[in-house]
Amino acid sequence: MLIRWLPAPADYHQTWEAMKAFTAARGPETPDEIWLVEHPPVFTLGLAGKPEHVLAPRDVPVVKSDRGGQVTYHGPGQVVAYVLLDLKRAGYFVKEYVARVEQAVIDMLAGLGLPDARRKPDAPGVYVDWPRPPEAALELAKISALGIKVHRGCTYHGVALNVAMDLSPFTWINPCGYAGLRTIDLASCGCGVSLEEAGNRLARHLEQALTAQAPAGALAAPAPAAVE
């Protein structure tokens, strides 16, 4: 897979249009790519997004996107990995793709000293205990959000990881449609990794997870084309 950083800050709408153009133009032999970006502040609503989940946007623009799910926030200090993958060539459907992306994030976070990183039933993304040890955990906090789109058997959009950012805009929305969902970043968890290092680590784990051989029977049934 080709891994590349887009110049920062990367305008959300322009990046989205570039992903759609790449996907429309690609052929059976087009190499898969991962684009790493840092966006200026923006709220994005997915295909199922309800405007009422944007509680107080203030001066942050709201963009209606074609990815799956509800509303999320992108901004400085967050790395987004946009995965442009030919699923048919990879040999698996969306359900397994989502599981592989989530596992890549979980494995990366474990390597950064967050072995409690995990999934949450019926709530795509990756979560960690909050507050952190030695205090007793009271809740799960979201550290990584997933939103995808599949067109002609190829994915675009991807996964966002909060590295070291102003988290207050997440309180201006119901993140991913969940009122009161706590959102956290690596810095708050005691991980002093830079945005660039976090992005590079994430891309390497994604590449490893997404190019691993699919198990027998992986193409048994399709799955929904968009999630968050």
Q: How would you sum up this structure, described in words?
A:
The chain is 23% helix and 26% strand. The protein is an alpha+beta fold. Strands 1-2-6-10-9-8-7 form a seven-stranded mixed β-sheet. The protein has a three-stranded mixed β-sheet with strand order 4-3-5, with no helix packed on it. β9 (139-151) and β10 form a beta hairpin. The longest helix is centred in the middle third of the chain and has 18 residues, at 94-111. Mean pLDDT is 93; it is low at 216-228.
Report a brief summary of the structure.
This protein is of the alpha+beta class. Helices cover 23% and strands 26% of the residues.
Q: What percent of residues are in strands?
A: 25-35%
Q: From N to C, what is the helix and strand string?
A: EHEEEEEHHEEEEH
What is the 3D shape?
Answer: globular
Strand order of the largest sheet: 1-2-6-10-9-8-7
Helix content: 10-25%
Radius of gyration: 17 Å
- The low-confidence runs, each spanning 5 or more residues with pLDDT under 50, are 216-228
